[in-house]
Design a protein that fits this description.
Oligomer: heterodimer
Number of helices of chain B: 9
Radius of gyration of chain B: 18 Å
Strand content of chain A: under 5%
Structural class of chain B: alpha/beta
Largest interface: A-B, 22 and 28 residues
Shape of chain A: flat
Distance between the termini of chain B: 35 Å
Distance between the termini of chain A: 37 Å
Low-confidence stretches of chain B: none
Number of helices of chain A: 10
Order of helices and strands of chain B: EEEHEEHEHHHEHEHEEHH
Number of strands of chain B: 10
Number of strands of chain A: 0
Structural class of chain A: mainly alpha
């Protein structure tokens, strides 16, 4: 009786997954059919995939540099947010509020188009070094905008991670005679990082797609190159599907690495 | 018992906001002495212990550890230096063990000597192995804390505190978080330490342990020391009604 019930349930599950797969296939067929109706040319995609590949390098480069800087910002931001100093709390709170409260696209415009205005004035007032620093090329401007923006979100992730470590850990370390810096570096951070890492991975995956926004400044990454060729040859569907596929593949690869890192980090916690 | 005391608590007060949890506590602990502190929950016994290594900042009074006097309410660099000294001279064992879960058993015990004392790794490992052996936990040296039983965790925590070679060991209800069948192994380690001449201050609910091992038993109630006597005296002729009530409660198996 029991075995028969299990067999029935297994069969039902199998039939259900077949149905879901069928729905996927119908959707893909409808999409391809529709595309062929509008004279979609898969051959054009095959001829131009290397262009997207070039762009993927820039996308990945900008994202990796930005996530690295954002991580450093988030580390200091979260420590500042949890500190007892009014100045540190004020600065970090203001930073998080402004950068999370405004669109990334506007932040990119302010850094790329707005700051040079300030820079020009500073040069006029006799501060040429500082002034020139504010007039940035597209790539540094993009990296700065993404870093600052993601640093703000990640400050909150880091803060939650640091706070999740029980007070007993801190007390045990203090009782051993550690100073606050040693407690943070040796006891709290290593434990918090395990909690933070999956979220940083998610942020990195999200950032790869948000980095498409730096195409507005003419950085030769995936979206910019796709737009360029799409316009030139009027192959919008072909190029944007190609670009979308490139982002999707990047995400899948990143998720795989994220998984591996998480497994590695939880080794000490296996029972 | 005429040597310089290890701990001298003088007129200690502690307020948590409006709550007056320690009211004029004075207590002296001599070298090699084992003092057990008993009392109901909320009597202030843990808070008193935590004031000794400044996990709680005393509100008033003075803590003296091995001749180092630290007045309450201090601030600034000099006060922090004194507090640091006090923490180096005291080893603390917590109710919830608080082992570092990201470190192996050995690393838990070498961490203090290496990071705080700047000891070389080789030397620290040698010391840690000696301390782990002393609590019977050397066989789990490379294990991580999650794979240990509660009793084993607490024994490692004791080794961790011992690794700093403190003048006095502070135990804050070391067996209260343990399953009943695991209490014995921890108490046995503590008995062994007492026999070896370790100065110990133990906040506990284990009346049997207090009676057998303590040189003196301190009874606390409502933030005050009610009585401090040799165990045989205290358990057979309690002077205070609150001590009597406490002993009766444990005799009848109450909490």
């Amino acid at each position: 009786m029991g075995a028969a019930l299990v067999a029935l349930q297994q069969r039902q599950r199998f039939v259900h997954s077949i149905k879901v797969t069928l729905v996927w296939l119908i959707l893909v067929a409808a999409l391809v059919g529709g595309l062929l109706l509008i004279r979609f040319q898969p051959s054009y995609m095959l001829e131009h995939y290397n262009i997207i590949l070039q762009g993927a390098g820039a996308t990945l480069g900008v994202s990796m540099a930005s996530i690295a800087i954002a991580t450093v910002l988030a580390l200091f931001g979260s420590i500042a947010r949890l500190s007892s100093s009014a100045i540190a709390q004020g600065i970090s709170g203001f930073y998080v509020s402004v950068l999370r409260g405004t669109p990334l696209l506007i932040q990119i415009f302010i850094i790329y188009l707005g700051l040079p205005q300030v820079g020009t004035q500073l040069i006029k007032f006799g501060y040429p070094t500082l002034g020139r620093l504010l007039i940035m090329d597209a790539i540094p401007a993009g990296i700065l905008a993404l870093s600052l923006n993601y640093g703000a979100y990640m400050t909150e992730i880091f803060r939650a991670g640091l706070q999740s470590i029980g007070y007993g850990q801190r007390e045990a370390a203090i009782a051993l005679g550690m100073n606050p810096w040693q407690v943070l570096r040796r006891i709290i951070l290593p434990q918090a990082i395990r909690i933070i890492i999956p979220d940083v991975g998610n942020q990195f995956i999200a950032m790869q797609k948000d980095s498409a926004l730096v195409s507005v400044m003419g950085v030769w990454e995936i979206t910019y190159l796709a737009t360029r060729y799409a316009k030139k040859d009027s192959k919008y569907m072909e190029m944007f599907i190609l670009a979308a596929a490139a982002y999707w593949i990047l995400t899948i690869v990143s998720s795989w690495f994220q998984n591996r890192i998480e497994k590695r980090m939880s080794r000490a916690y296996e029972r | 018992m005429n040597a310089e005391p290890i701990i001298r608590i003088s007129n200690l007060h502690k307020w948590f906001g409006m709550l007056h949890v320690l009211r004029d506590i004075s207590l002296i602990v001599q070298p090699r002495e084992v003092v057990c502190i008993i009392g109901r929950s909320g009597s202030g016994k843990s808070t008193m212990l935590r004031c000794i290594n400044f996990l709680e900042e005393p509100s008033d009074g003075e803590i003296e550890i091995h001749g180092l006097k630290i007045p309450a309410g201090g601030k600034g660099r000099e006060h922090n230096r004194l507090v640091h000294e006090a923490r180096l001279m005291t080893g603390m064992v917590f109710q919830e063990f608080n082992l570092f879960p990201h470190m192996s058993v050995l690393e838990n015990v070498t961490e203090g000597p290496i990071i705080v004392k700047g000891m070389s790794r080789t030397q620290a490992i040698q010391l840690a192995e000696e301390k782990l052996d002393n609590v019977g936990m050397l066989f789990k040296r490379d294990e991580y804390p999650t794979r240990l039983s509660g009793g084993q965790k607490q024994r490692v925590a004791i080794a961790r505190a011992l690794s700093m070679e403190p003048e006095v060991m502070l135990f804050d209800e070391p067996t209260s978080a343990l399953d009943p069948e695991l209490i014995g192994e921890v108490l046995n380690v503590m008995k062994k330490l007492a026999k070896e001449g370790t100065t110990m201050l133990v906040v506990t609910h284990e009346m049997g342990f207090a009676r057998e091992v303590a040189d003196r038993v301190v009874v606390m109630a409502d933030g005050e020391i009610v009585e401090a006597e040799k165990p045989e005296e205290l358990f057979s002729h309690p002077k205070d009604a609150r001590t009597q009530a406490l002993i009766d409660r444990y005799r009848t198996g109450g909490g």
